[in-house]
Write a structure and sequence with these properties.
alpha+beta, OB fold (Dihydrolipoamide Acetyltransferase, E2P), 2 domains, 5-stranded mixed β-sheet, 10 strands, CheW-lke_dom, CheW-like_dom_sf, Chemotaxis protein CheW
């Protein structure tokens, strides 16, 4: 009977150790040149790189409180240390399926400026990436295809061949479609 309880404690300890290590590495990475450091996220089926200079904190997953008459991609509000924070299902915003949530999913705050802060749901946080560890896919620096949103930055590939897309947080926070959280009614 104690075995399941011990397994649960061991998993909780490993998760706490991982979270502490990730927090430590985030602090350390912030001392590196910001242009060279990214927080890597999986959001639905896509992999995103958030520049550390434009990224807030990583919060434990908790269900956002729904807000009526908002866009389908607006998941709702969470309380983050006394401040209300809007949470976006970024996969839905990008036209994909809802972000699948699983144990270990997180809420990632975009922007360190309180007045512009909001957050996105992340299926998982994949740690830190540095520009030196990434390459242009297929060695190509071609411009993005026509119609690509301004907030989709450079694409990279990691050593394992996975594609990563840089999220230009500032451009996203200025995008009219992103700012239109309220559902337009006719």
């Amino acid at each position: 009977m104690n075995a399941p309880r011990q397994d649960l404690r061991a998993r909780q300890t490993r998760l706490q150790d991982y979270q502490a290590m990730l927090a430590r590495r985030l602090r350390e990475a912030r001392s590196l040149p910001a242009a060279d450091s990214y927080l890597a996220l999986q959001v639905g089926a896509r992999n995103w790189l958030l520049p550390l200079a434009d990224t807030g904190e990583v919060l434990d997953m908790r269900p956002p409180s729904p807000v009526p008459l908002t866009q389908p991609w607006y998941s709702g509000l969470v309380n983050a240390r006394g401040s209300l924070l809007g949470v976006i299902d970024f996969s839905l915003f990008c036209g994909g399926a809802p972000t699948p949530l699983q144990p270990g999913s997180k809420i990632v705050v975009l922007s360190r400026q309180v007045e512009r802060a909001c957050a996105i749901l992340a299926t998982r946080v994949a740690g830190l990436r540095h520009a030196a560890d990434l390459s242009l896919p297929h060695g190509d620096a071609a411009p993005p295809p026509a119609g690509t949103p301004a907030w989709e930055g450079q694409r990279f590939a990691d050593r394992d061949g996975r594609d990563w897309q840089v999220l230009d947080v500032r451009a996203l926070l200025d995008a009219p479609a992103f700012l239109q959280v309220g559902r337009v009614t006719a």
